[in-house]
Design brief:
Elements (H helix, E strand, L loop, with lengths): L4 H4 L7 H77 L5 H44 L5 H7 L4
């Protein structure tokens, strides 16, 4: 039995299906790479937008805090002025009744104690508000995801 040389040689069309499959796979890989690059650019843009937003929010918060400080100082000054006038008036009028002066001094002391208590409460509230704002800003500025954010950002399968 002799087999001809032509029958043993592979025909050029025998590899056509494999070449077509390889070409399609190459095209798909190129398309996937383009899609990945597009997604990466989009994510980079989103990150930059978020950073800019955080910067704007931080600047806005600083302006609000500055305004609140100014208003607080004005409020304290306006409330302290009548007390200071009352104290000055008491010093100027030493010829008054001892009991009346003692009552007035006690009243001024009570007002001063009340004001001190209120100032301490305002300071505590101020500290709490500032630390909360700073904590939120730091969380937003932190590029490493926390475990709770990573779980919530992970899509469900």
């Amino acid at each position: 039995m002799s087999v001809s040389a032509h029958a043993l040689s592979p025909s050029p069309r025998m590899w056509d299906p494999f070449q077509e499959l390889l070409a399609k796979a190459s095209e798909e890989v190129a398309e996937l790479r383009q899609q990945a690059a597009c997604v990466e650019r989009r994510r980079h843009t989103e990150v930059e937008e978020m950073r800019n937003l955080v910067k704007e929010l931080k600047a806005e918060r600083e302006l609000v805090i500055g305004k609140m400080r100014y208003e607080f100082e004005e409020l304290v000054h306006s409330q302290m002025q009548p007390i200071m006038k009352a104290v000055k008036a008491m010093r100027d009028s030493e010829k008054g009744d001892c009991e009346a002066q003692a009552a007035q001094i006690a009243r001024v002391k009570q007002e001063m104690l009340g004001l001190k208590e209120h100032l301490v409460k305002v300071q505590c509230s101020w500290t709490t508000a500032a630390s909360t704002c700073i904590g939120v800003a730091e969380e937003l500025m932190d590029p490493t995801p926390s475990p709770s954010r990573a779980k919530s950002a992970k899509p469900s399968e």
